[in-house]
Amino acid sequence: METTLLLFKPDALQRGLVGRLLARFEDKGLQIVGLRLLRMTSELAARHYAPHVGKPFYPGLLRFMTAAPIIALALRGPKAVAVVRTMLGATFGIDAKPGTLRGDFGCSKTFNLLHASDAPETAARELELFFPDGLEAWEPATAPWLWDPA
Ligand code: CMP
User: Fold this and answer.
1) What is the pLDDT of residue 90?
2) Catalytic status, residue 48
3) Which end of the chain is more exposed for a tag (fewer CB within 10 A), N or C?
């Protein structure tokens, strides 16, 4: 089992897509083990996006991510990191395939709705940033019918 970080970016909240997006992850069988509504500070955004410092889109990305509230989620499930990345689709909505979340809900390069960790090591770093007090461990009632036996 893995846990990954998912962010609903400011455009997802502004467009009123939170319920529909969240439902897709619940439908998939991923478990919510952390959930926070927050306004990203410049400091948090800089730490989260440190790997992108110096890239041409970095200043605009930080402006976008700090412009309005976001929702941070920790999602747990089998191969959760790769599963969630696949669900998001290509980085930009204009390129993302139909059936993926960015493919179905967006057509912008800037406003791409969601962020998800790209590897288990990245997930560990990003989860610590957004959930410094840890995550909630609970056993879903559906687990025996949802996930393969250990
Ligand atoms: P995200 O998953 O949040 O991780 C890094 C973000 O940088 C990415 O989604 C995009 O929002 C943004 N990004 C990456 N490449 C570009 C680009 N070429 N132009 C604009 N934004 C980009």
Assistant:
1) 98
2) no
3) C
Does the pLDDT at position 150 exceed 90? no
37: which strand partners?
71
Report how far apart, in Å, the C-alpha atoms of 126 and of each of 23, 59, 108, 142, 146 are: 22, 20, 24, 27, 26
The band of 57, judged by pLDDT with boundaries at 50, 70 and 90, is very high
First-last CA distance in the chain: 10
**Does the pLDDT at position 11 exceed 90?**
yes
Is ligand 1 within 6 A of the CB of residue 112?
Answer: yes
Kindly give the distance from the C-alpha atom of residue 31 to the centroid of ligand 1, in angstroms, as a whole number.
26
Whether residue 57 has its Cβ less than 6 Å from ligand 1: yes
